[in-house]
Design brief:
By secondary structure, the chain is an alpha/beta fold. It is built from 14 helices and nine strands.
């Protein structure tokens, strides 16, 4: 058994022991992972939703933060409706627990697309209130997946840099690869990030995925001091569009499809990621850093 497989098995065993015993996980152990992309239309939100469900299947308590201001559509993909979002928490009308809604596959979703923009205008009292809400909620979450917007806008950069890990989704289109590089460049140059996880999507196979990886690493090695890990890939699969039309997650609608199997492998690799030492990656850090930057 290789090292990655051993890490995966240990993570699963630890989670199973926690669930059986009813013991909460250690404070500050929430994994915060941002899923981002250089351009829209590369399947970022769909991957986030399906990855969340795959992680929840492993006994993890998963919260998805819909932070895509421009094309927020995770509710469409998951066929869920909501009457409140993070703005209602900021205004004091609702608590965070009131706003978080149940999604398919035992995941939780925090609708926030229309409320994230207001984060740029928070006063000190509002910042402290929001941090307090998340600190109170932290014991109920194992993994927070952030579906960021696409591109290099400040909101995207803030969430991606505050997370423990940034998964960058790219397709074989030249513009997608170029824009993925731009995201990494800005996060490296302006925010000090030096490690990225690449996920090629809608590729014909491993060879095409590695081509995207090689194109990006070739340029990064010349101009940036960063490392890029190939986290896996999601193959072209007609079941993805079929599931979207049905407003279902494809890992639930077509669990044996090539894309679902790819997401299943991705979930194992996410679990095997080594959590950085120090505060980076926990829920309080993510919100404190995000609000400090805004």
């Amino acid at each position: 058994m290789d090292q990655a497989a051993q890490l995966i098995e240990k993570a699963r065993e630890a989670q199973e022991r926690r669930v059986r015993s009813g013991r909460p996980r250690p404070a500050g152990a929430v994994r915060v992972i941002a899923v981002t992309s250089g351009k829209g239309g590369v399947g970022k939100t769909n991957i986030t939703a399906n990855l969340a469900i795959a992680l929840a299947k492993r006994g993890l308590r998963v919260l998805v933060l819909d932070a895509d201001l421009g094309l927020a559509n995770i509710d469409v993909i998951l066929n869920i409706t909501h009457s409140a979002n993070i703005e209602h928490v900021l205004s004091g009308e609702r608590s965070l627990r009131d706003v978080v809604i149940d999604g398919p596959g035992d995941i939780k979703v925090l609708p926030s697309s229309s409320g994230v923009e207001r984060l740029t205008h928070l006063g000190e009292d509002e910042r402290l209130k929001l941090i307090s809400e998340f600190e109170a909620y932290e014991s109920e979450v194992d993994i927070l997946l952030i579906d960021t917007g696409a591109g290099i806008s400040p909101n995207v950069m803030y969430f991606a840099s505050a997370a423990q890990a940034a998964i960058v989704v790219a397709t074989p289109e030249p513009t997608s690869i170029t824009d993925a590089y731009a995201v990494m460049k800005v996060l490296s140059t302006n925010y000090g990030e030096n490690r990225f996880f690449l996920l090629p999507n809608n590729v014909s196979g491993e060879k095409a995925a590695r081509k995207i990886y090689q194109d990006l690493t070739g340029v990064a090695e010349r101009f940036l001091n960063i490392s890029i890990d190939l986290l896996g890939f999601v193959p072209t699969d007609p079941n993805i569009s079929r599931a979207v039309r049905r407003r279902h997650a494809f890992v639930l609608a077509y669990p044996e499809s090539p894309a679902s199997e790819a997401i299943d492998r991705l979930a194992d690799r996410v679990l095997a990621l080594k959590v950085p030492s120090g505060p980076k990656g926990n829920l309080q850090f993510m919100w404190r850093k995000t609000l400090d930057l805004l």
